## 1
Amino acid sequence: MTLNPADDRFAARLRETLPDDIFRPVVPRYLEEPRGRYAGQVGVLALPRDTNQVAALVRAAGVARVPVVPYGGGTGLVGGQVMPEGSAPLLISLERMAEIRAVYPMENVLVADAGAILSDVQAAARDVDRLFPLSLASEGSARIGGNLSTNAGGVNVLRYGNTRDLCLGLEAVLPDGRIWNGLTRLRKDNTGYDLKNLLIGAEGTLGIITAATLKLAPIPAGSGTAMIVVPSPKAALDLLSLARDHLGEAVSAFELIDGQGLQFLTEELPEIRQPFGTPPSWSVLIEVGLAAGLDPQTALGDLFEAAFAQGLASDGLIAQSEGQRGDFWSVREHIPEANRRVGAVSSHDVSLPLGAIPDFIQRGHALVAGFGDFRINCFGHLGDGNLHYNVFPLMGQTRGDHTQHAGAIQRAVHDLVHEMGGSFSAEHGVGRMKMAELERYGDPVRLDAMRAIKAALDPAGIMNPGAVLRG
Amino acid sequence: MTLNPADDRFAARLRETLPDDIFRPVVPRYLEEPRGRYAGQVGVLALPRDTNQVAALVRAAGVARVPVVPYGGGTGLVGGQVMPEGSAPLLISLERMAEIRAVYPMENVLVADAGAILSDVQAAARDVDRLFPLSLASEGSARIGGNLSTNAGGVNVLRYGNTRDLCLGLEAVLPDGRIWNGLTRLRKDNTGYDLKNLLIGAEGTLGIITAATLKLAPIPAGSGTAMIVVPSPKAALDLLSLARDHLGEAVSAFELIDGQGLQFLTEELPEIRQPFGTPPSWSVLIEVGLAAGLDPQTALGDLFEAAFAQGLASDGLIAQSEGQRGDFWSVREHIPEANRRVGAVSSHDVSLPLGAIPDFIQRGHALVAGFGDFRINCFGHLGDGNLHYNVFPLMGQTRGDHTQHAGAIQRAVHDLVHEMGGSFSAEHGVGRMKMAELERYGDPVRLDAMRAIKAALDPAGIMNPGAVLRG
């Protein structure tokens, strides 16, 4: 089934029923994505003001068999928001639907337009003394509809879950242009198939999310942060278990830091203040959020003592001030920037069963060594089993010296991840970049079910064609 | 598309490829359900020993166009497990697939066959010092596959979520007889459509769940229980907010108790020890599970003092012993039995947005009064917005005296619930009993999407026909 381009005739037809001011000339930012790997094309750019206009646009695209690309903040890293090939699409940006529709503090619920910027949702929650826990690097420009469509992760998944777990209900325009009103505030509603979770993570291929009911959480009474030196990744995992024994679900972040990453920081960003004189081979950043009546510093101190007694920790620092907390987090948050400056040969956003991680790190290092001498920075959201396993050239070399190995290293790492029960995309999604990986590693029965669902809900294949599933 | 009965010829064909010992004569318990509202029929009863046998059975049914009814513990209350009409089905009971396949304490993960009894799953978690939080009245006979297929609720939803929220991955036989292996232990895996959540809550109409990866939680270091007298349902909600301000997410149960329910207990079950001399009009049962370092009794005492100061509580008791905790819970747990003895004219398992509950109770009472003089017992999982809103005859009358009003009262209550943004089935599902309600109250766009998904995954309509969606 070939699709038609969103050409002048199509544009003219749209203007017959929709107000002129929702159409805009295409500017470059809608054709780009953060890492510059794809160059998009757009036939018609529409910035609807409300859900009815989104529905009218999708209906018209369906009639004309024109592809539709939904657009949030444009911060996705797998090319889900750009369509480099095929007939030029109608791009629907949700940026003018960016209101917080309602806040229900007593219910711990907030209703937002899909175009609301994540940091605005966080702020609206804070205004009523609540926490919207989703937090990630691009929160100042990412929009909540995009976060939902990609089921974004971030730094608080350990305690609060992925975006999926923070959503109670959706409003969406389905591929036939009809509006599904599922903006429920209910915590319990067992009345049929879970359409909400089907749309979440579908990356715009099954419809356009136009609004969402989101869960808020109480703000913990007290928070604390520690950096603890551990002898090995296995010890880091044992420390995580110990932390949960001590603190229950209060552990909100548990990040593994690789000595190689600290070394990169020293080399590339010497202005970042590092907590330990000599970069330890392995350390963890722990954040806890505690109920009233518990002192975070005491709790972290007790944890460290117990860990030290069990040989799980050799050194540690507990932040004594907000400034020091900021310093600890700054180390963690600048590692990706130092990585960029060094230039990776191959990067991997993988997840593994927690128990498999020490073995994976060992086997991964041996595997990469088979391709030559490299530096590896293996860090990330250890508590979620999510590692950024990145391979770098030796000092004095550049990524360009290893172009011939990049694909083979990536394949070998992903093969190992798959063999050990892991995923080749922990938090970024499939988009256009990882479609071949999905075909290689995805369960074939599940893939067929996905294709059947796609064909059932979007028989003409107009919704974000080329993303997730091959057209 | 008419289906064929699971007759002798079909049975003979199954025996050609499957071992004799998985077929059993049909005994009455497979034809019954707990409240005796439906009488089922079964052509062939199969008790497979493994997933491959389940797959072979479903494949054979597909070829022969024979309906399949999946069967767990048989404890469902909406007739999802019995097929009273149409061609006699192949009933596949998972009872011989009841193993705990693996436990990963460090990962807080357990893998169980779908036929594992819920209390066995709980026990396996306890054996490694972990909590599997799903807890409900039928846990001694309900099987985890059925809990998943109905997305069961229970008493710990407030803190730990519904069954859906406790599942990381599934293994299932899809309607075409193929096995989907989705038994992941990953916390993060963004690689395509969420087939897991589509099967959860589908009540066996999209496939048969054969195994699941389940999330475990740490056991709270200390637990406490209180009963607190509140002036009104509104005050109960304010008390819930206050409890969360004090205790964060440690509040694991928050049950509303209606004075009418305590009155029924006095009348019908006088041996149950009640905490207050005169039954208060409204009270709540609060359970907290706290991290180490916090004393539950002190925490509940502080909460009561703050509530009293704000006029949200007039009296209260904090359990001083395990025996007293048991007494408090015994009051809550015997209310349904007292209800049964009185005999309801109409019962409603509804959920509402939390903030709408006080208004709903007031309007509901006025509505019911329009049909005559009745006694109302409105109680349940207030923290989840889930009320059991049950209407009883006056003392000296029986439900039989009001048969003519039962349907109209139910319709009026459900209409009101729907108008206020609530659900006609909070935790029991749709099954065969509430299919008409789903058609009346369900969003039509979502219903069409559900029908399209059903047709895509089960084009012959063999999986549990007549449940959830009309055939």
## 2
Amino acid sequence: MNEKTQPTHSTGRIAASVDTLDPVLIDDLVAANRTLASLNVLDAFGHVSMRDPRDPKRYLMSRSIAPESVSAADIMALDLDSRPVNEEDRDKVLYRERFIHGEIYKSRPDVNAVVHSHSPTVVPFTVTRERLRPVLHNAGFLGLGAPLFEIRKTAGKKTDLMILTPSLGKSLAKALGKDAAVILMRGHGDSVVAPSLPNVVFRAYYTEINARQQLAALTIGGPINFMTKEEALTSNEAMLKASARPWALWRKKALAER
Amino acid sequence: MNEKTQPTHSTGRIAASVDTLDPVLIDDLVAANRTLASLNVLDAFGHVSMRDPRDPKRYLMSRSIAPESVSAADIMALDLDSRPVNEEDRDKVLYRERFIHGEIYKSRPDVNAVVHSHSPTVVPFTVTRERLRPVLHNAGFLGLGAPLFEIRKTAGKKTDLMILTPSLGKSLAKALGKDAAVILMRGHGDSVVAPSLPNVVFRAYYTEINARQQLAALTIGGPINFMTKEEALTSNEAMLKASARPWALWRKKALAER
Amino acid sequence: MNEKTQPTHSTGRIAASVDTLDPVLIDDLVAANRTLASLNVLDAFGHVSMRDPRDPKRYLMSRSIAPESVSAADIMALDLDSRPVNEEDRDKVLYRERFIHGEIYKSRPDVNAVVHSHSPTVVPFTVTRERLRPVLHNAGFLGLGAPLFEIRKTAGKKTDLMILTPSLGKSLAKALGKDAAVILMRGHGDSVVAPSLPNVVFRAYYTEINARQQLAALTIGGPINFMTKEEALTSNEAMLKASARPWALWRKKALAER
Amino acid sequence: MNEKTQPTHSTGRIAASVDTLDPVLIDDLVAANRTLASLNVLDAFGHVSMRDPRDPKRYLMSRSIAPESVSAADIMALDLDSRPVNEEDRDKVLYRERFIHGEIYKSRPDVNAVVHSHSPTVVPFTVTRERLRPVLHNAGFLGLGAPLFEIRKTAGKKTDLMILTPSLGKSLAKALGKDAAVILMRGHGDSVVAPSLPNVVFRAYYTEINARQQLAALTIGGPINFMTKEEALTSNEAMLKASARPWALWRKKALAER
């Protein structure tokens, strides 16, 4: 745990950190949680975070509740060692696997949003030898790589497969590497990263959709005409912009429900 | 039928048994029924029970109606021979397969809740040679075993595959054994047991989810990197606690619907 | 067309035929239509009928609209040549494939209800060599047989696969035979028959469920431990009674929706 | 871009073009958008258009928003070079792939409605060698052909797989040919055409349903008893009329939701 490498902060400055955040951003994060639950990427587990746009050494995430239940009051700020920034949040129950988020933000300055999920059709691709590769143009980001994290190699035989320590979070972030948008977690799910919150929701959704379509293509029988690396990267660039359209729909629906 | 082995009880004491039960517990059982219906683990068949926390020789279950219709007034107490405890419940229609519950409570003192379902993706694993094994960490409890009960061996050729007698209930409980969390029932479904009601709902749900993911992994093609026994047991311990999070969500939604 | 073999009827007697029918029975038929739509057995096509309990030479069915839209006012009486019985119904648009119903009622006096659907997972079993056989005990009625009707053999090369004439209805009824509960229709769907309306809804639903589970079992890989003929028949007897439980739920929900 | 081949139009005449359109037709187009979203043929992407019944050199389509959000005010007229006809629409954000529509209307005078979608179970058939062929009689239109457009051959290595230029639209229209109802787009989805809006919704829906059923039939194992060419064409003729029934249901539900 690199706790010493993170600056300590004045409580006064910190206490204000979420309160003064743009309420639109808080709503964005609430909407992202609810959207991924309604799209069946998240069930009662999983979590969504965004880097604090005012301070890249912090990120925002809900306290530990089911994503579809998240409201604005549940959002808190954490530092990159995944400790609550605000005094008043010290007693709240935190997601036990929050280190996934903090350690990825440390190692990937290009990443501003992270989703961890048990994406149902992705899980089978974490326990088989078939790689998850881009079938659908919306999932071109898979061309950036989707490596597999086999926790058994790091955590040893007694693992419960969860990322419960900063050290495991660091190992996961290392396995993600400098380029990939998705890290598969064996017998567990995945973590998806992106430069923005709308785009991470988009990527988490299309990772699941691509997994379903790749599974169907395997059922039909190969060879499968996957996107080339070049196509995938070109498509990914286009989708970084195009994710605005679904996000407008998803955000509106998610916030209208309550 | 071991009717004589069970104590007879004073009607007075019994008549009060459900009425004086904590209404929160009754609501828990109502919520468990509705939740498993809304999660598509139960259709119009199947049933959920919990051991009476005041008297381990009794259990609580609905009268015979579809699980998603269950309300507090439908809950009754049964003794471990699966006879209604209260005078006023003697005329009610009971689940014909209630012996699944009573006989498991007799043979498994560690079990405080039971679900019997026709879990749709579990059924195919009851008629094939592929064993149901833990793919997803939430389903680590499958590492405790998920044996198959072939009713044909016990009930003979004329079976309708149902557990309609105490004797068949006993055979099923014996096949479940002392450790397993799930017993597969050929051509029928499964019965799932747990130390608590929230955990049995959790296990019934993730048995279905694991079956879907194992089916997808088989479609992709082996070898499948199943959880090891040690991982499964470690994960199971973690999930006994972690099931509180989904339960909070499920309970709230189930009780809000009416 | 056996039009002459059916008695002509006095308009007076006929005009009253539906009006005086027990409104509970009309609601049953409305509920059956909506239920099978909400269970995704029927989409915007398909139809449900019941034999008129007052006159076995008539049956009751909706005019030609999508099943989920059916209301009491849409129900009309038809004779077994599938002609409207009541004067006021003569101008209504009828289901073009109503001969499925009329001809089955003629040939099967034991049948009191018929469903024709494009049951989505049944269709693949109509174009492959794998027979639909009972996997799940609720589908024991499949043990009575589920023959395939290859319309190409009867209707010739220019068929649109539909049962648009009394003659094709007769051929279909003949292929169903005297015992089967289900007739598969190649590239089209199925028709399901039962001694009662609740049971035909039950059978249509579990035909679809069994098809899904048999498909999953085939994916896992054989040999599949199907129900034996004896088990299937025993289970079918039990389910003729047990279908009351789902029916109570389905009917209530279907009629509450409007 | 064939901009010169299209007539320029008087702004006065044009400005009135949508305003004076029958509001029933505008509602039809709104309903078509929402219906295909609720049927899961469209997600937040995809678009639906109809040829302007008053001027075959124009078509009507929404501005660029998610299909399920489309309202009457979003509908605009475009010429066949896919430029907004009305002055007031010049600043609106347009679907970037609108050239799919314009170029098909140019090359296929028989076509009066077009749907472009990422139909989820169709995508796997665009990356494998299995052809999409009619299994279900409702999908007889597949007998008119469902060729594959491999954009890599036209757009080169750096393609993002989207139809972003008139030239790519023309290539797609050419690949569709003079007869087919569906063009598969590799790694992307499909475009479906029909002589009327109700029929194009019908065809887009049953293209997805047929893909699911063909996938299931392939899972069961061949040989698959596909519809013959003659059966497919006969059935297609019947369905051009029969699509009125589902359309009545879908339109009513889609417009009732808001």
## 3
Amino acid sequence: MRWIIHSEAQFEAGHALKVYRGEPEAYHHHLWKIAIEVGADGLNDEGYALDFNEVHQSLRSATADLEDSNLNQHPEIGVPTPSAERVAEVLAGRIGPMVSTFGGTLVKVSVWEGPENRVDLIL
Amino acid sequence: MRWIIHSEAQFEAGHALKVYRGEPEAYHHHLWKIAIEVGADGLNDEGYALDFNEVHQSLRSATADLEDSNLNQHPEIGVPTPSAERVAEVLAGRIGPMVSTFGGTLVKVSVWEGPENRVDLIL
Amino acid sequence: MRWIIHSEAQFEAGHALKVYRGEPEAYHHHLWKIAIEVGADGLNDEGYALDFNEVHQSLRSATADLEDSNLNQHPEIGVPTPSAERVAEVLAGRIGPMVSTFGGTLVKVSVWEGPENRVDLIL
């Protein structure tokens, strides 16, 4: 990919890992931050790689049902366990097809579980 | 590349895409932010990869004529259309030769068109 | 690597390059920031790639003796010269073995020598 377009979103949600170091985790909330990177090989007829607004809208649409939610009760994220990695996998599964409709390729999903805990899923 | 040196700069400038979704865009201003990544394979005789000040100076020199400018009237950036991607291409063409004079290789130019719209050019 | 876990730490320390552009540098202090990226290929039985707390603890442990120190007097960092690159090399040598004990692979160490001067060591 020659061009990478970025987008970010945030939402508040609670979760508890089903098992952490052998014990169930206590339920707690985080401000979650999501960043995506969407690749494109060239520029379109209007002189840009992808429409920033379409990329942002894809991310916002994919995270809309997570705001103020309990991730343990989410049908996809809650299984097998609502880790930051599971959030990344589920969002990748939603966003990849969306951005491909306008010529983008999802290459990375980053999830911040609070300000200090960040994991990237490399696609 | 084993080592990557980073530098950032900002400038205020206006632009209007000549065509956006089929229509001319209204002229508007942004605070543009530029970040570059410059690679080097090893350390020099003084024990560092590249001189931070030389990298910063290359970026500042390359963006000096854009401060408070109308990007549509810029002879290079205005053609074919003053998109963030075109800003990245023109800056890459200026900065690559500069950093090569002191042993660096320009590997990425990132352009923020306002706080939320970021595109990277991978070189 | 499919998963990348991030961690950051900061410390205050002084240094002076032994030679910079042919002259000894004056001794001065910085707020140094360190960021690491630790890779993992898959998720563990508890549904996450690596334990964020173990990654953070590795970084904090590796930087503990640098807080409020003179890097020129550090037995490893001071030789051959206490550059940001040398800080990165020494921290990589400490952190790589630590994170491998819990299944991680250190892939990048970034060092900020003050707010504007950043160098990455790609492993």
## 4
Amino acid sequence: MQTVFSVRTSGPGLYEFTDEVARFVRDSGCREGLLALFVQHTSCSLLVQENADPDARRDLQEFFRRLVPSSDEPTMRWLTHTTEGPDDMPEHIKTALTAVSLSIPVTDGRPAHGTWQGIYLFEHRSGAHVRRVIGNVSG
Amino acid sequence: MQTVFSVRTSGPGLYEFTDEVARFVRDSGCREGLLALFVQHTSCSLLVQENADPDARRDLQEFFRRLVPSSDEPTMRWLTHTTEGPDDMPEHIKTALTAVSLSIPVTDGRPAHGTWQGIYLFEHRSGAHVRRVIGNVSG
Amino acid sequence: MQTVFSVRTSGPGLYEFTDEVARFVRDSGCREGLLALFVQHTSCSLLVQENADPDARRDLQEFFRRLVPSSDEPTMRWLTHTTEGPDDMPEHIKTALTAVSLSIPVTDGRPAHGTWQGIYLFEHRSGAHVRRVIGNVSG
């Protein structure tokens, strides 16, 4: 069984959709099996992270901003793919450093992530976007 | 078919559980299909790496320690999520930079990884822990 | 259904095999399900990235070269696993920072990646190699 999650974003950061994923798995009727998530973009990614403290999510985003600065910053002047703006290439790099797909076992009709784990869309791009994540449940 | 692997750790580093995974796949009776592994924590991750030389694993751990230093080091003073200690946020970041899930095809009743590939729990946290990894075999 | 993709490489960079993957999925007869890809090496990885501009792929490779320099460069002198050459350990680290497995849903008989997403073997090693990627379709 498949679905498309539409995750609305408004600038770089982590957007949780754990509840939507749980609902899809419940509605699928699957009791034990495998859930796969796949994001159909090259400037955002998927992340499983602590869902307790918003500070942690801001720090995470800031780490990636410092690790991969915009192409208009001195340390990144060597970038050549800049026609789509100074953040375009850093967005692709951040996606490469994180994940575009996740595989989460389904146990007793629920995604078997830990108590403190949330499922996030990690947006790297500025502006408002609706991001597509494909969900597949099998087994 | 599912299982829970309990991986005992004692501080940052790589802990191999390749043999336990192979045993689970063999006992599942699956000849061809897919094995999924998922770690239920946000301060350790999963890694497929060379299983030959312990030096390689120490270097790997040291690279991540240098890339994401503790929040009490000068270059990381900007971190805000520090109430759980100077290593808490770096642990989450290292998890984001690596993997929480792996998908490994099963061929002829065995996980189809290469000869030199081992399956590791990559522990980022100090102290002694028992880490839970969910395994799912299907197909 | 399984296959082995043989991807020929000639030095560090991204090598696309999107079409080969699509052909395998089509020939499998699967209409809806899950495709898993797994690379059997520890010095190359898998990447889903923009397939439009070759500059983007060169920048991506260059970012990783700068993030993880050779062990004969001053900032990397601390590496100990150097018997197989100055690039051996950086190759393993780059693999750890990216992905060895991908899970891509199959929809209407095709891998459900986005229009601009291509599937790449990310080679980290010099010289000519034939890299093995296992493909598994189920569901």
